[in-house]
Design goal:
By secondary structure, this protein is an all-alpha fold. It has two domains: about 5-35, no CATH class; about 45-115. Helices cover about 80% and strands about 0% of the residues. It has helices spanning about 5, 15-35, 45-60, 60-80, 85-115. Helix 4 runs antiparallel to helix 5 (about 85-115). The chain is elongated, with a radius of gyration of 29 Å. Its main location: membrane. It is a multi-pass membrane protein.
Length: about 120
């Protein structure tokens, strides 16, 4: 029993060779470009690392501090209205601690495991 769905139309050997040759040429060109990039001591991911560091500095810097102040003010208004639950207060306090303590927490975890 022959299954025609799997076999499909026949591709000529020259078409297959042309496609494989083109794929090999593109692959080799990509390898040359990748090898041409030297880290220069800063690494290939230096721009990405800089961008992520800017995000961390933004969150843990003055903007994050202002957000934490607004969150504590919100807790004050909830307490004033008699609607503050201890769960909400604890969640806000723990969240603030995690946001601003994140760099230290991660550094301590890395130091505990070792490099």
């Amino acid at each position: 029993m022959k299954c025609n769905a799997i076999e499909g139309p026949r591709v000529g050997a020259w078409k297959l060779a042309a496609v494989l040759g083109l794929a090999a040429a593109v692959h080799m060109a990509g390898v040359d470009l990748a090898l041409a990039q030297s880290g220069g001591g800063s690494g290939a991911f230096a721009p990405l690392q800089t961008a992520v560091q800017m995000i961390v500095d933004f969150i843990t810097g003055p903007f994050g501090r202002l957000l934490a102040i607004i969150a504590v003010i919100g807790l004050g208004f909830l307490a004033f209205a008699g609607r503050l639950s201890w769960f909400t207060a604890g969640a806000v306090i723990v969240g603030i601690g995690l946001v601003f303590g994140a760099p230290t927490i991660v550094d301590e975890m890395i130091a505990a495991v070792g490099k």
